[in-house]
Structures are given as C-alpha cells and as structure tokens.
From TrEMBL:
One Pfam family of this chain: SelO
Descriptive protein name: Selenoprotein O
Compositionally biased spans, kind Polar residues: 185-197
Native organism: Jaminaea rosea
Taxonomy of the source species: Eukaryota, Fungi, Dikarya, Basidiomycota, Ustilaginomycotina
Record region (Disordered): 178-200
C-alpha cells in the first residue's frame, strides 16, 4: 500500500501535460514557483488563454474570493512594496495607488505559492527522483489558513480505481469524530493534531492534499536548477510582444519546439483544462475548469493493461477559467456529487468516480445563502470533453485540434497507427472518424443507462459531455421520483431542453458539434487516405480548409446519426430486458412492450413500481400451472397482482380508471411476453418465477438517491456533523439492488425502519437542486 503522493505516475507519453500545449502564461510547472517578480494572480485571474492552450498549470488555493487576507499577510506584503510604510501615500495619483494595491495583492499571493527556498525541503519528500513531493507554501502554514475535515471516503472508488492507495486510519478517524465539532475533528491542516502513527500520517497526508493545502508536484531540488519559465507571467512578459508578430505557421513552429522541450522534462504539476461549449444551445465561447484542478495522473497497475486515472479536486479555488466565481464549492453540491457518482457507478453506468469529500469548516461560501465549503475528489480516466475540441476549433487552431485528437486516439482509445512524434516524416493512420464514432457509441450507451434508471443530468451543455462517454459534472441532477418524461431538475432550464425525454437528443447534439470540430481532419483523411502530418493543416489556404470541413461534415453526418441512434436503442432495449428478466429480443418490443411501460409509469414512482414487478413472476408461475390454459392463468395472475402493484395515489382523479386499465393491459402483455420468452419447456420447469424474480431484483434498484435523501444528508452534516449517516447512505448507494429494509444480518428494527424510509418516495423535490455553479 502506498501513500497518496507515492502512487505511480504514468510514463511521459501518457501525461496530458507532456502531450498537449499549455497556457503561455504557465508554460511549465516551474511557472508556479513564487519568484521576486512573478505575478501569481495570473494563475487564477480570469482571462482568455492564448491560442493552442489546452490547459493552465494551477495550484489549489482554498480562500474565499474576493480575497480577504490575514493582517499579518498584508503587513508582510506592504513591507515588500516600494511605498510600504511611507508617509504621504495620500499624495499618490490614482494610477500609482492602483499599481501599489496590485503589487500588494501580488506580494500576498506569492506567500501562497512555493518559493525557491522551499524546493529543498518539501513537507512531504518524494519517494523517488521523479516522484511527487508535497509542498506547503509559507502562507498555507499560517494558523489562519483553512484546515480540512475528511467527511467520507468511498471504499468502492478506492477498490475500483486506486487499490494501492493507503488511506491510513481515515475510516476510523471519520467514524470517531462523527457528531462532533472542533479542532480535534480536523484531519489535516494548521489546526489539526499532528499524528504520530504511520496510519495517522497516511491519513494526514491524504487529507492535506485532498483539502487543497499540500501541492503535489515534481520540481527541481534547488533554486539553481530553475529554468527560464520560473515565476508565473515572467516568461510571458519577456516574449509577449514577439508572439503578437507571429503568423499561424510561425506560432505552430514555436509551440512545436516548446512541446518537444516539454516532453524531455520530468517536472510535473496539476492543471485546469481549457475548453468551450454550447450552453442551453447557445455558443458560450471559452469556459474551462472554473473550480476543478487535476492534481496528477496515476496508474492502477493491478489490472492489465494498467488503467490511468486523473485525480481532481472540485472546489479548491480560482483558476483562469473561473470568470466571476470564487472557484469554491458548497457542502451540498459536493456531497451530492460524491454520492451521485458512486450510485451511478454501482448501477453500471459509465461515470467519473468520487473518492472522497472533505469539508473546510472555516471557509464560508456565499450562494443563495452562507454555506460551508467542501471539496470533492473526483476520478476519471480523462476529463477531456467535447468542449475541449470546440475551443481550438472555434479559433481555427487546427494543429491544437489535431494534437488533442491524436492524444485521445493513441492514449485513451488505444488506436493503432497514431504516433507520438510530431515530425512530419512519420506515417499516420486515419483516426478522426474512428474517434468520432467511438465517442458516439460510448455516449450513446451512457445516455441509455440514464434513461433506464430514470436519472436526469440537468446540464447537458457540450462542455459537460465526456469524450469517453462518462457521466461527468454532477450539478442539479436528479432521479425521477414521480415519473414525468418532461421533467428536468434544473431550475434554470425554463424550456426543459435537458428533460428526461430530451437527454439522448442533447447528447447527440454534442456529438454533432464534435464532428464539426473535427471536420477539416475528417475531410483530409477521406481525401488523402491518411491523417494530416504536423504543420500540414496550418499551412493550407483558408478556402482549402473550408472545402475540407464541408466535405468532412457531409461525410460523417449520416454515420453519426445512425451510429448514435442504433447504439442508444440497442443498449436501452437490452437494459430494459434485463429489468424485466427477458432473455430474447423481439422485433417490436419497443412499441409493443417498452414504450407502453413508460406510459404506465407516468405519474407513478419510477423506481419502486418497477422493483415491485419482481413479485409478479412467482404469482404468474403459480397461476399458469394451476389453470386450464395460459390465458386463464395470466388473467388470474394479473387480477390478483394489480391491486398490490399499481399505486395510483398521485394520479389525477379523473385519470385513475383509465390509468388502471392501462396498467392491467400492460401487465397482461408482459405476462404473455414472459411465457413466450420461456418457451413451452421453460414454462413447464418448476421455479422459473423465483429465478426470474431474482434476475429482476438484480437490475431494478430498491434504493436510489432521491433528492430529499441527499438534502437530508447535507442538513444532518451541517447541523449535527453526522458523518455516520453519510456513510450509511453511501453504503446504500454502493449497493442499490439489495433488499434494504428487510430483516437480515441481525440489524435492529430501528435501522431497518430507517432503510425502508430512505427507499420511499418521501417528499419529491423537483427543480430546486443546487445549481451547476454551487
């Protein structure tokens, strides 16, 4: 078992920061070093990033914004400015006063970044020459800097993604501190007790990194080894005038040289992605990770081939993409993402994972009200999304699109014939259409999974659609309690663009924009039978690129639609057959059985109504075996089962008779289909009802994370620090198909009653979920 910072990094050929182009203001991890003339505000100042930039190097800073610095920090910064402590400040011009204030801000911010003098003695020394060390800047050592409290760790995410990670005594620490408040509940930070045991030290390191205080990086061991890129903004200020004089070809040649240099360096640090996107159907321009910072990549070497994972903090402070926001996250949205990610994973739907949730008890976040701050640790094989392609494509930066596509094809999709080399004499196999259709298939399967469990994402902007087909960016999501195909959990979605019914169409909308972003490469590959070489696209005339783009989009338009629709339908029908314990596919099953089922479910509890169907099959077996013919047995089974299955209490009074008749008709069709599926020999075999009932129970959840349940978890954390309740709900999220509330394992009646309560509809919450920016 390994402490967090000792987890293995992937080889240079797989690292995002060694394969894609960085922001020109942070061209290297050493750019984050706090030098005398650095401008650390540029690390988080909201700004457009230069052409070609796929990411910016960023370190976490968990302070409220606008920043309110401790007095001792301001005093130290004042002493370092030219006018600090001098008389006659009132005589300054407005311009001088502004410059002095900006210098003061820069001076304070430098104390929160690692200084050259810190390089020789990191707080957590690296275990190997090229391994991660953990640095705690002087400003983060102050007693006023926020300490962290571990609220939860997902054992499933730990086992599935990072099985070699040593979390020390984290689980015991969380259990021991439940229901309590105060400094002794901090798991790391200036106010936390320093542990003496190895288990305590592993937990402290984990919490210190996941709480955003300790910065993981691979840096030079002393000041003498620093390069010209050291100090944020310093390098850019020296060469920015030359950048303005470049044409597109010259810019690519420069960036190609920078990339070649970067690929030879072992220095390493965290980053935030640059991307763009369509929000609610309208082009929004540059967006990016406004409050997400990927700390590092690692490999799960217990599987073959090793599986890469990116460890990311959500809510750890401002980045260049934060716009007017503070880069922080509230406890409610953090806990919802933690629980939501893990239940979606437990249901077998492709998703990012949530390793942990950490609170910052001394940090307040202002949204609709004052909220406690928290950070979610998210894991994904990659956080590249469709918007990652849209940003460079919108700038006609086709070399950056090509670099991104080659990285995804080679490292993430593992396509053959896509070389790492950026030399033009290397043969390149076509990859763009393969990437596009693979992304379409993966996202189709994801969307079908959502539809099968009645889950709505709420914010299906193109920047929230993963290139890998993972459920990402959990915001105002929700499981549908009372089923309504027009429902959306997002209070900002006035037109119900992202309703349950519309979700597959909106994912396809995003895939089509991926095709647009790849269009000149698609056209080039079709025309030449190979992928473009480095520099080839940037050297082409605009009219030739336009011709290739039009040809490329036309080439794949029908294939994209057909691939996505076919894959969505195939997966959707497969998932619903599993829910109904049906083994054989029938040609008309969508129109004859599945669409009518959704019509029956309108106005009913989506989850429990389907779960209760498992009890019908033993009744059907008994009725058919004891009847003169099958139709008589079916009728008997339906008549006896409908009163216990169909709950019309929330159906409008004037619709109740028609809806009940609809349920009877569907149940009869389901019984007939089940008997056809069994065949004559299967119907005669004893015990098929019980066996198929168990099959349904394995695919129809007993528990889903209803919105009111998530709200109760948050409320009990805020008011009672009840991490034990969070753990109980997490356990139910990790095993949604168990028969919660049924006597087993010696559980007390009190515990069983709580389980039953948490599985019920309760009070449905519809459109007042935390927003995607909370």
């Amino acid at each position: 078992m390994l402490p967090l910072l000792s987890l293995p990094l992937p080889p240079l050929s797989q690292r995002v920061t060694h394969q894609l182009l960085p922001d020109g203001y942070t061209p290297s991890p050493t750019s984050l070093i706090s030098t005398q003339d650095s401008t650390p505000s540029l690390i988080r100042r909201s700004r457009p990033v230069p052409h070609g930039a796929a990411f910016s190097y960023v370190s976490p800073l968990t302070l409220p914004f606008p920043y309110e610095f401790p007095k001792e920090e301001v005093k130290a910064a004042n002493a370092a400015t030219q006018n600090g402590g001098k008389e006659g400040i009132g005589e300054e011009s407005a311009e001088q006063q502004y410059e002095r204030q900006m210098n003061q801000v820069e001076g304070v911010l430098r104390r929160y970044e690692v200084a050259p003098s810190d390089l020789a003695a990191p707080a957590y020394p690296a275990k190997s020459k090229d391994g991660l060390a953990g640095y705690v800047a002087v400003g983060k050592q102050s007693q006023s800097y926020p300490s962290a409290r571990l609220l939860g760790i997902s054992p499933a995410a730990l086992e599935d993604c990072l099985p070699e990670l040593d979390v020390g005594d984290s689980f015991d620490f969380i259990a021991k501190t439940t229901g309590r408040d105060g400094p002794d509940t901090y798991s790391s930070g200036p106010m936390a007790q320093q542990p003496t045991s190895d288990e305590g030290k592993a937990r402290y390191q984990l919490s210190d990194v996941l709480g955003g205080r300790a910065w993981p990086a691979v840096l030079p061991s002393n000041e003498a080894e620093l390069d010209d890129f050291s100090g944020c903004g310093v390098y850019a200020r020296k060469v920015a005038d030359d950048w303005k004089k470049e044409d597109a070809v010259q810019r690519w040649e420069r960036r190609k040289r920078e990339l070649a240099t970067r690929r030879q360096q072992s220095s390493y640090a965290g980053w935030s992605q640059a991307y763009a996107g369509h929000q609610f159907g309208s082009w929004a321009g540059q967006l990016g990770d406004g409050r997400a910072i990927t700390l590092f990549e690692t490999l799960n070497n217990t599987v073959d081939p090793p599986e890469r994972w990116e460890v990311q903090l959500k809510g750890a402070g401002r980045t260049p993409y934060s716009r007017f926001a503070d880069g922080l996250a509230v406890l409610a949205s953090s806990v919802r993402e933690y629980l939501g990610s893990e239940i979606i994973a437990a249901m077998g739907i492709p998703t990012s994972r949530a390793l942990a949730v950490v609170s910052l008890p001394d940090v307040d976040v202002m949204r609709e009200r004052r909220n406690p701050a928290a950070i979610t640790t998210r894991l994904a094989q990659s956080w590249i999304r469709i918007g990652s392609f849209q940003l460079p494509a919108s700038r006609a930066d086709w070399e950056a699109v090509r670099l991104m596509g080659e990285y995804v094809s080679r490292v993430l999709f593992r396509f053959d014939g896509v070389p790492e080399s950026q030399e033009s004499d290397v043969q390149r196999q076509p990859w763009a259409k393969k990437l596009l259709l693979e992304a379409a298939r993966r996202n189709a399967r994801m969307a079908a999974g959502w539809q099968s469990v009645g889950w709505t994402h709420g914010v299906l902007n193109t920047d929230n659609i993963s290139i890998l087909g993972l459920t990402i960016d959990y915001g105002p999501y929700g499981f549908l309690d009372i089923f309504d195909q027009e429902a959306t959990p997002n209070h900002s979605d006035d037109m119900a663009r992202y309703s349950y019914k519309m979700q597959p169409s909106m994912v396809l909308f995003a895939i089509k924009h991926l095709a647009t972003s790849l269009s000149p490469i698609l056209g080039f590959e079709d025309k030449h039978g190979r992928a473009p070489s480095p520099g080839e696209l940037v050297s082409m005339k605009p009219e030739d690129l336009e011709e290739l783009s039009e040809a490329g989009e036309a080439l794949v338009r029908a294939d994209v639609d057909q691939t996505f629709v076919d894959e969505t339908m195939r997966e959707w029908k497969r998932l619903f057959r599993n829910k109904l314990a049906l083994e054989k596919e029938e040609q008309d099953e969508k129109s004859a059985l599945l669409d009518p089922l959704l019509e029956v479910l309108e106005g009913l509890d989506f989850t429990l109504t389907q779960r209760k169907l498992k009890d019908f099959l033993p009744v059907l077996e008994e009725s058919v075996q004891g009847a003169a013919d099958q139709e008589e047995g079916i009728q008997k089974a339906v008549d006896s089962f409908v009163p216990t299955w169909y709950d019309g209490t929330r159906v409008l009074e004037y619709l109740k008779d028609d809806k009940r008749e609809q349920a009877v008709k569907w149940l009869t069709s389901f019984a007939q289909r089940t008997l056809r599926d069994l065949g004559d020999d299967g119907v005669k075999a004893a015990g098929w009802g019980t066996a198929r009932s168990a099959g349904m129970a394995a695919h129809c959840p007993r528990f889903v994370l209803r919105n009111w349940v998530g709200q109760e978890v948050v409320q009990r954390l805020e008011e009672k620090h009840d991490t034990a309740f969070l753990q109980r709900v997490l356990e139910m999220c990790l095993h949604p198909y168990e028969e919660w509330g049924s006597a087993r394992d010696g559980k007390s009646e009190e515990v069983l009653e709580e389980e039953r309560r948490l599985c019920e509809v309760g009070t449905p919450l519809e459109r007042n979920m935390p927003s995607c920016s909370s």
